[in-house]
Amino acid sequence: MTNSSTLDIDRPLETANAFQRFAIAADQIAATTKRLTKAAILGDYFVALADEDLRLAARYFAGTPFPQFDQRVLQVGGSALMTALVTVSGVEPDTLQAALVQRGDLGDVAAQFLPNTTAPSLQLSTVEDAFTELVNTRGNKRKVEGIVNLLRQATPLEAKYLIKLMAGDLRIGLREGAVEDAIARLAQQEVSRIQWVNMLTGDIGETALLARHDQLDTAKMRLFHPIKFMLASPVEDFDEISRRMPQGFAVEDKFDGIRAQVHIAPIAANSTPLLHGVTTEGMRVALFSRTLDEITATFPDLIAPLASIYPEALGTDASAGLILDGEIVPFQGDRILPFQDLQKRLGRKTLMDELLQSTPVAFIAYDLLYHQDKVLIESPYEVRRSLLESLPLNTDRVRRANAQRFSDVAALDQEFQAARDRGNEGLMIKQIQSTYKPGKRGKDWLKVKRAIATLDVVITAAEVGTGKRSRFLSDYTFAVRTSETDPTLLNVGKAYSGLTDAEVQDLSDWLKQHTLQEFAHGRVRTVEPQIVLEVTFDRVQPSKRHKGGYALRFPRILRLRPDKPAHEIDTLETVRKLADHSPESPP
Fold it and tell me: Is 249 helix (H, G, I), strand (E, B) or coil?
């Protein structure tokens, strides 16, 4: 078993770029719960790095191999990492699986079992090259070979963090916000300024360099990388709206579709090559999901309608652009169709014309984040809304959400029912003077949803079904987060009904590729917690069976939520509130 050494910040600069030093710093950060101590360790490490290595280290400590604007992914699943670790360690798979159950992290297992015979030789740049090669490698077998080659060059401690990076989470109690905080302390800047530049560039590594060289003022908005979405908090009663927004509020329908962010600009608006979007009629258009993934290819029928609004709105201004926040919904005439109609498009590699015609979609814009070369997120809602209303969003395919101003909650019952009658999920309540807070879930936006109780949960385990589904993993154990600040997952139920046969087959294939551990000859598997479900149920009741202390009675799957990342699922506090309002279980 590998023990981390003390981080020697006085070592010569030429050795600072060793990946071993990155791993040592990561181990020390994981060993403390104090935010200031984490920031100090990170700062001591960053200050010794040359510029290009600082760029890489900042990205890696944010938990991603590539900058946000890049959108490349390694596409390495847990089963591929386990196969590579078996090969490199020479340890029996059952032994590694047992250690994984005990430790819960494959990187920690690697540190325990890999032989400590390799001298540190990896550089941060070497790791970057290896990750780039993995992205360009096709086929699971060849990817495993690439991972094996990388791990064979690594010490046990280095392998620990290589695997964590490839799995997408360092799990050392460090988020991107903490990296921004450390950069701010080193540059003696307000952290809000670092956050702003990171949002503009979409690259925490580039932000670190600009801060080091006192060039934050030179940062410009980089179009075609997603800005994090502002989120809404659920409201339990209308009185809470009155208490929080006594001066009045805006009311919009809450649409039951896919949250999307649209970027539009003339091709000449960016002189550097752009990785995302498609071009049409001299315009570039890209769509990003709530998970910050590009989804342009899933909605090819929206490209031309979105591109067409730009010349009408901004003329031939090649330096400007638009970023719209809104929802993609299926529709028929003036009526919005159920979300299930939209699901027919999701997860498909090819979209036939017949499907595009049978399931038309529209983009409904309800916020404007960038307009005429100006970032608007610090402008009040009413200013953003006024500019949004100036845009020509008036076709079947591109629409603008209606917004009404209310001074009290007396009419909201009627408005809620009207929204439901229009085929929508409920209401959004927005504070008139609120700024747009990327990635934040505050009380400036409130949501009033459907009357039935639902939870967003993540699949943690899957089991082979019965009958016609006996060939598929179709019974799903699911979990919620412990709290907003504690991402530990707690199982609260198991469901097997609600998905179509096609959805079950596709999901089964994915779960098999992302299995962490198998039981009963593969009939039961723990899986990577990435697939989010929206479930409903009869009631919440106390349970000694689950660590969280609660279980859902008769849960049913309403739908898959590919638009929602796992770190945004519901928490145990939400489950507890639902339990408090559940009727007593029958004797």
Answer: strand
**HSE of 235, CA atoms in CB hemisphere, 13 A:** 24
List, by residue number, the catalytic residues. 254
Is 111's pLDDT higher than 90? yes
Local structure of residue 495 (DSSP, 8 states): E
CA-closest candidate to residue 276, choices 327, 322, 226: 226
Taking only the tens place, the pLDDT of each residue in 386-442 is 999 999 998 999 999 999 999 888 888 889 889 988 888 889 999 999 999 998 888
Distance CA 354, CA 336 (A): 19
**Cα–Cα distance for residue pair 220/199, rounded to 1 Å:** 10
What is the 8-class DSSP label of residue 545? Answer: S
Cα–Cα separations (whole angstroms), residue 137 to 75, 80, 126, 490: 10, 13, 17, 35
- With 80 as the cut, is the pLDDT of residue 320 above it? no
What is each CA distance from 564 to 149, 259, 312, 324, 424, in whole angstroms?
A: 34, 9, 33, 18, 18
Residues 546-582: pLDDT tens digits? 788 898 887 889 889 988 888 899 999 999 888 876 5
Give the per-residue pLDDT at 104: 73
247 CB burial (10 A radius; 0-12, 13-18, 19+): exposed
Q: Which residue has the higher pLDDT, 272 or 479?
A: 479
User: What sections of 334-425 are H helices per DSSP?
Assistant: 339-343, 353-358, 381-389, 412-421
Q: Judge whether 135 and 99 are in contact, CB under 8 Å.
A: no
In 3D space, the residue among 292, 325, 287 whose CA is nearest the CA of residue 307 turns out to be 287
What residue ranges define each of the domains in the chain, with the CATH number in brackets? 13-167 (1.10.3260.10), 231-448 (3.30.470.30), 454-581 (2.40.50.140)
Q: Determine the pLDDT at residue 10.
A: 42
Which residues are registered as beta bridge partners of 493? 478
Who wins on pLDDT, 470 or 59? Answer: 59
What is the maximum span of the chain, computed from C-alpha positions, in angstroms? Answer: 72
Say if CB 300 and CB 269 are below 8 A apart: no
Instruction: Give dist(CA 234, CA 425) in Å, integer.
Output: 13
